Amino acid sequence: MKYKIALVGCGRISFKHIEAYTNNTDKLIMTAACDPVIERAQAKADEYKKSVGTADVAVFADYKEMLKTAKPDIVTIATESGKHRDIAIDCLNAGCHVICEKPMALSTADAADMIEAAKKNSKKLAVCFQNRFNAPVRKMREAYEKGRFGRVLHGMIQIRWNRNESYYSEAPWRGTWEEDGGTLMNQCTHGIDLLQWMMGEDAVRVQAQTRRFVRPIEAEDFGCAIVEFASGAVGIVEGSAVIYPKNLNETLSVFGEKGSAVIGGVAVNKMETWRFSDAVTLGDTEEAVLDGKEKDPPTVYGFGHTALFADVIESIEQNREPLTSGENSRKALDIILAIYESQKTGKPVDLPSKFSTLDMKGVFDR
Question: Are 137 and 36 members of one domain?
Answer without folding.
Answer: no
